[in-house]
């Protein structure tokens, strides 16, 4: 069915375009001029956007779980639970995501990663799975955050250690992002091999100096994991990973940032945005307690406590995860930075797609892209949502 969306403010080429149309067929965005003038076709269906903002679906590159399910915890019903969460994320505007595993034992990776390979989005599957984000275990113990110390590892034997940890099948077929601390033994030398495998290397949970962080970028790292968290605070003599915001090393990496107002102060979000606006990526870092009542839950093998506005390691003040949705996080990013609506939306659509190298099919409404589409009100509330061209029932 050929569908035309009209009377919306369509996000294209970094601006909201009025008096334009969006054409969809077979789950893809079509070139309207080619359809109308070249193919001389009329739409089978027309949808009035009623003045809504029309933008791509949100992409979350770091989410540990939701609705009571932890991606790092094996279970007999794992695949069914994964689908349940994927469907649930659609209701919050997330149409694609990287299920994130915290630092775990090798046997857990060997069991779970084959289940987390890329999977297309649909009404049946829910949000598209872009591949797994393995956050650890090749990270710095001093900056482990809520990660279990006993699971942490080094890569003293190089890429062999990394392959042994994740398993070759999972590493080759499922892993899309890997968070590492570049200063840990053997890690820096593994980055080029990981990049050749099509894996996005992200720096995080790290005590790296700025020099070490910049060398990791030269080796191929292109992302920072939850900026400001699990890394040294900014120091004027050596700003550490945060110093990459002002680095002359090209290209400056993208950075995930948690916009719940707890993990990162709103002013710090604005500092990062002002320094490197094209690198900003809104992530949730949400965990299993997202969508649940306050109480005690698990993150991997760690007990955590969900409070009204945060999740802590149980019995401590150590932050363990976020309970904000991607929709709420984008709204906060707009508020914290004072950026334009277009820039806020691109921080959860275009930028994550660019970081993963998939902007030819995700994160834009250009011809050829997947028809994952949101209709938003001016306050960024979701009015309608489409996954692969099919409308999602939001009730």
UniProtKB/TrEMBL annotation:
Cofactor annotation remark = Binds 1 divalent metal cation per subunit.
* Keyword list, A-Z: Carbohydrate metabolism, Hydrolase, Metal-binding
Single GO biological process annotation from the record:
N-acetylglucosamine catabolic process
Name the top EC class. Answer: hydrolase
Cofactor(s) for this UniProt protein: a divalent metal cation
* Catalysed transformations (reactions): N-acetyl-D-glucosamine 6-phosphate + H2O = D-glucosamine 6-phosphate + acetate
Question: What is annotated as the active site?
Answer: 285
* Positions of substrate binding: 146, 229-230, 237, 263, 319-321
Residue limits of the Amidohydrolase-related domain? Answer: 53-392
**Domain of life of the organism in this record?**
Eukaryota
The Enzyme Commission number assigned here is 3.5.1.25
The residues that the entry says bind Zn(2+) are: 135, 205, 226
GO MF annotation: an example: N-acetylglucosamine-6-phosphate deacetylase activity
Q: Which family does it belong to?
A: Belongs to the metallo-dependent hydrolases superfamily. NagA family.
| Record-given protein name | N-acetylglucosamine-6-phosphate deacetylase
Species lineage: Eukaryota, Fungi, Fungi incertae sedis, Zoopagomycota, Kickxellomycotina
